[in-house]
Amino acid sequence: MLYPLPAVMVSVADGQGRPNIFTVAWTGTVCSNPPMVSISVRPERYSYHCIEETGEFVINLTTEKLALAADFCGVKSGREVDKFEAMGLTAAPSVEVRPPQIGESPVSLECRVEQTVPLGSHTMFVARVVSVSVDERWLDGTGRFHLEQAKPVVYSHGTYYGLGEAIGTFGYSVAKKRTKKRQK
Amino acid sequence: MLYPLPAVMVSVADGQGRPNIFTVAWTGTVCSNPPMVSISVRPERYSYHCIEETGEFVINLTTEKLALAADFCGVKSGREVDKFEAMGLTAAPSVEVRPPQIGESPVSLECRVEQTVPLGSHTMFVARVVSVSVDERWLDGTGRFHLEQAKPVVYSHGTYYGLGEAIGTFGYSVAKKRTKKRQK
Predict the structure, then answer these.
(1) Residues A55-69: pLDDT tens digits?
(2) Tell me, what's the ipTM?
(3) Taking a C-beta distance cutoff of 8 angstroms, is the pair B37, B125 a contact?
(4) Residue B44 CB: number of other CB atoms within 10 A?
(5) Is the pLDDT of residue B179 over 60?
(6) Which positions ≥6 away from A176 have C-beta within 8 Å?
(7) Does B29 touch chain A (CB under 8 A)?
(8) pTM for this one?
(9) Rounded to a whole number, what is the distance in Å from the CA of B39 to chain A's nearest CA?
(10) B65 Cβ contact partners less than 8 Å away, ≥ 6 residues apart
C-alpha cells in the first residue's frame, strides 16, 4: 500500500561463505546518523538464516539494466539455483563484511545487523551501514554522485518502473516564493 | 544512500486535535501480515511530540500534483505555519485515528504506533496500519487500484521525480523463460 518503493538486491553469505542474492522492496533508511537501514524478510526464505547466522548483508541498488536480475532474484530461491551464476553477476569482495557485493550495482551498502525485530510474516533487521561502495562512473568532477544517470528502478504494486521527469529539488517550494518576492 | 524512496506526507494531531503535516522519505513497509510500516523522525521536529503524545499518524502518498505541497511540508515547521491552510489541503476525517487524512492524497494509511525505537538522529516509529483509504478514481472496474495513474512521486538524492516507463511485472524474468520453452 505504501508505494513506490526501491527494489534492492540483498547479497548474503552462509556460514561456509556461499553467497546468495534475494530481492526485497520492504526496505528503507531508518536513521541518518549513524546511517542505518532496515530490511524485512520472511523467516522461511533461504537467505533469512544466512543473515541470522552472520549478522551481515549488503544492499545493492537496482538499475534498469539489472531489473531482470532483480526480478529473478526475487522469484527464485537460493536453495535451487546459484543466482550470481544464473544472472551473470559478479560477486565482488566487500570491504567490511563477508557477503560479497554485486559488482554491477551502482551503489552497495554493507550492513551489520543491530536489532532483529519479529513482526509477524516478516522479521525486520535494523542494521548499521558500515561501508558504502559507489560506481565511479556516476561521480562528477566535484565528487557529486548522480544515481539518476545509472537509471535506478522503483517498484509499485507489482511493476518495476524507471525514474520519470525531475519535478523539483528539495526546498523548491520555498525557493520559488523567494524569487517572486525579489521580483516585486 | 538508499534511493529512490517514497516521499510521503505524514499527518498528525497534537493533544488538542490541532493537525499538522510533515514530509518524510525515511519510511517503508516492514511487515505484510499484519500490515506494518515505519517512519523515522528527528525528535526535534514539531510533529515528533504529536506522535509521541497520540501514538497515531497517517501516511498520505504524494503525487506530481502534490509535490510542491510535499516539499513545503518538509521544509516548513508546524510551529510557524498551518500547512493545511497554506497549501490549500483538505483535512478529511480519518476512520480509526484522530489525525486527519489529506483529502487530495490518492492513498492514506492510518497508523497506530506499536514500537518506538531510538536510533540516533532519528527515532523509528513502527506502526500497524489500521485503516486504508483510497481515492476511487484510481480503482478500475475489477476493483484493482492503479496508483501509477495518480502519478506518484519518488525522491532520490534531493530531487523529486515522477514514475518513468514500466519495465516489467513481478515474475517477468521467469515468465519469459517459460514462454520460450513452450515455443520449442
Answers:
(1) 999 999 999 999 999
(2) 0.93
(3) no
(4) 9
(5) no
(6) none
(7) yes
(8) 0.94
(9) 7
(10) B104, B151
